[in-house]
Amino acid sequence: MKIAFLSTFYPFRGGIAQFNALMYRAFEKEHQVKAFTFKRQYPNFLFPGETQYVTKEDVADEIPSEEVLDSINPITYVTTARKVKKFAPDIFITKYWMTFFGPSLGYVAKKLNKNVKRISVLDNVIPHEKRFFDGFCNRFFLKNNDGFIVMSDAVLKDLLSIKPEAKYIRVNHPVYNHFPEPIKQQLAQQNLKVDPTKKTLLFFGFIRDYKGLDLLIQAMDILDDNYQLIIAGEVYGSFDKYQVLIDNSTAKNRIALYNQYIGDNEVADYFSAADVCVLPYKSATQSGITSIANHYNLPIIATNVGGLKETIHHQKTGWIVDSPSVEEIAASIKDYFEGKYKSVFAAEIEKEKQENSWENFVEKIIAFSKEL
User: Fold this and answer.
1) How many CA atoms lie within 13 A of 110 on its CB side?
2) Beta carbons of 34 and 66 less than 8 angstroms apart
3) 34 and 77 in contact (C-beta within 8 Å)?
4) d(Cα 282, Cα 209) in Å, to the nearest integer?
5) Are residues 123 and 252 in the same domain?
């Protein structure tokens, strides 16, 4: 089949671009795929990180994409739709993770020929951080798609709250498999300059308010000297409030801070060094961090918000904390280590991840397209 895929690709970086690259590679094994991407993804004033683009230190899959869409220039909406129509796809795929992109992606989808199956992979529908334009953008985008791929029950619930008649399939998030292989824990801890005798927690990924890093830092005050925390990720906004918490913490000498974008080639150090990955989220729909952790067979302790418990099975592949509170997060961390669950959970993760391959993921999308 001919598949047009409009979303974030190289030279942009980050989890969305990584997801799309792996999906593209799986599609191209059996189908003709053309990738279209942004000339400008975000205006700089809307992007709180250091850079939107791949740097020379990054190891990125250089997907051959055509840079056509400017998210804030409606003229490019028209030209992008024309270029996609010229390719004459059977299926048109987008990735939707922020309402800001509703007008641009929705317009292109609207202008395609009626015989094209328009399918969107939904990361979020109702955003964590709400804005005045969310309602209009969501309705416009969802109206102009024929079917949806959802990877959590939380996202499905949000979709149906806006578009009750939506056609969809529910598929698990595939396991990220493009990262380097794990290395020995002692070597990884040496590389990161952390104490190999301590129980090692990992907080990984972009730092945003809803992800609850403040709760985890405060939980370190409850945990004894046998525990240490690695914080690895670029902050969206200001890190000041977290730095104040660290400076005032009794555990500040047991917190290793890597407050920067972590390139793919560096990821193995962080996940290999840790005994568990902690997601102390205050709200969530799903998290790509779970897929990275699964690649490294690293168990996760996560709060019971959004769709996290759908991919982290309590006392089987990880640990679910009842609510996002400092005391409960600390207590769950203690329970996890006292039960010596790491190797048991890792074995279960290895069994489960065989099902969640990228090949299975795209096969289900193709089958779904034939039903629309």
Assistant:
1) 14
2) yes
3) no
4) 8
5) no
Whether 138 and 256 map to the same domain: the answer is: no
- pLDDT at res. 332: 97
**Element at 169 (helix H, strand E):** strand 168-170
Same domain, 51 and 189: no
249 is a domain residue: yes
> What distance in Å separates the CA atoms of residue 345 and residue 282, rounded to the nearest whole number?
24
Asked if residue 300 and residue 237 are part of one domain, the reply reads yes
Can you give the CATH number for the domain in which 87 is found? 3.40.50.2000
Tokens 């104490």 locate to: 195
If asked whether residues 198 and 93 sit together in one domain, one would say no
β-sheet bridge partners, residue 33: 3
pTM above 0.70, yes or no: yes
Residues 258 and 195 in one domain: yes
Q: DSSP letter for 54, please.
A: -
Is residue 179 a part of any domain in this protein? no
| pLDDT tens figures, 31-80 | 999 999 999 988 776 665 666 777 766 667 899 999 999 999 999 999 99
What residue numbers bound the domain in which 346 lies?
Answer: 185-353
Number of domains into which the chain is organized: 2
Q: Is residue 156 part of a domain?
A: yes
Put the strands of the sheet holding 65-70 in their side by side order. Answer: 65-70, 32-40, 2-6, 91-96, 117-122, 147-150, 168-170
339 falls within a domain? yes
Please say whether the beta carbons of 2 and 89 come within 8 A: yes
Question: 364 and 338: one domain?
Answer: no
pLDDT of amino acid 301: 97
Cβ contact 94:121 at 8 Å? yes
CA dist 70 and 76 (Å) reads 6
Rounded Cα–Cα distance for residues 150 and 62 (Å): 26
The C-alpha atoms of residue 304 and residue 314 are separated, in whole angstroms, by: 10
Cα dihedral across residues 61, 62, 68, 70: positive or negative:
positive
350-355 contacts, C-beta under 8 A, 24 or more apart: 350/297, 352/294, 352/317, 353/175, 353/294, 353/295, 355/172
Domain co-membership, 156 together with 201: no
Give the integer Cα–Cα distance in Å for 336 and 107.
Answer: 48
CA distance 238 to 91: 41
